[in-house]
Amino acid sequence: MCSTSARIISGNALAQTVREDVALRVQALTQRGIRPGLTVVLVGDDPASHVYVRNKAIACEKAGIKSDVIRLEEQTSEHDLLSLISRLNSDETVDGILVQLPLPSHLDEHKVIETISPSKDVDGFHISNAGLLMTGKPLFRPCTPYGIMKMLESEQINLRGAEAVVVGASNIVGKPMAMLLLAAGATVTLCNSKTRDLAAQTRRADVLVAAVGRPNMITADMIKPGAVVIDVGINRLETGKLAGDVDFAGALGVAGAITPVPGGVGPMTIAMLLVNTLEAAERRAAQS
Ligand code: NDP
């Protein structure tokens, strides 16, 4: 049996601190006549997307950020969606545009993201922002990896020379995560579904990030004793409960620190969306 030892990294607590800081900066900006604004576009009826969008809107309102949600029918044409994005691009009161993913299958996700002005792409998914991140000059960092970096920073994890292993290589989590860890001085291994011996990779990790979407796939024996384990996965079990990608109970006995699900990376993702929107508005203020 494993003894409980790992420190639990609370995303809820850190997100609260970040949100309070954002609220103060939003207030200062609003007093100068510039109220930060985020517009979220939601196409279709995906229930999980509706929950995410509602949570984002509530977080914006609490921080004093103006939030608009534009809900479009599932059958919306690509032409209409791209026209809407173009209008939002030229609307000066909109600092951030977020198109909630996934989109219905008849819409080309890539084309939609590339239509968002890079200066309003608060998700950081536009190829121009991906390129800036890759070349070490980020404008917007994608919110989930950005939130994870904040967590590592607040836990005072020394990343210089650390072995970091990221499991999952999506454009929105794994790849930008690897870039940010690399920029912080870590030696990074990025794993995907073809990785031959995953456990051999994860066992070397001083910092292990799991972002796959498979419940409990990272088991205690795959974790280096004392490692920092960041669990990005959000998996709905048949019981209705949420689980991460890491066997949390098992990992507690091996890891040095670990993020829980829920209450870990999720709240930080929303907090960093607020930061990105605020910073877009601060750049607008600097130009006016
Ligand atoms: P994707 O499905 O886009 O990507 C999954 C990645 O995992 C792919 O790179 C895939 O490899 C890799 N993978 C699949 N199976 C294995 C395996 N057996 N071993 C190693 N790698 C594997 O997922 P996302 O990045 O969008 O999301 C990942 C998880 O994170 C999901 O649970 C999602 O809900 C959650 N999430 C949580 C957020 C939060 O705020 N907490 C935000 C965003 C996502 P390949 O490239 O070869 O296909």
Tell me what you see in this structure.
- It is a single chain.
- The chain folds into two domains: 34-126, Rossmann fold; 142-265, Rossmann fold, CATH 3.40.50.720.
- 42% of the residues lie in helices and 15% in strands.
- The protein contains ten helices and eleven strands.
- The strands form three sheets. A six-stranded parallel β-sheet has the order 1-11-8-7-5-6.
- Helix 2 links the parallel strand 2 (37-43) and strand 3 (66-72).
- It is globular.
- The model has no long low-confidence stretch (mean pLDDT 97).
- The structure holds NADPH dihydro-nicotinamide-adenine-dinucleotide phosphate (NDP).
Summary of the model, kept short:
The protein has 288 residues and is of the alpha/beta class. The protein contains 10 helices and 11 strands.
Secondary structure layout:
Blueprint: E1 7-8, H1 11-31, E2 37-43, H2 47-63, E3 66-72, H3 78-89, E4 96-99, H4 109-115, H5 127-134, H6 143-154, E5 163-167, H7 174-183, E6 187-191, H8 198-202, E7 207-210, E8 228-231, E9 235-236, E10 242-243, H9 248-252, E11 257-258, H10 265-287
Parallel strand pairs: 1-11, 2-3, 2-4, 5-6, 5-7, 7-8, 8-11
Antiparallel strand pairs: 9-10
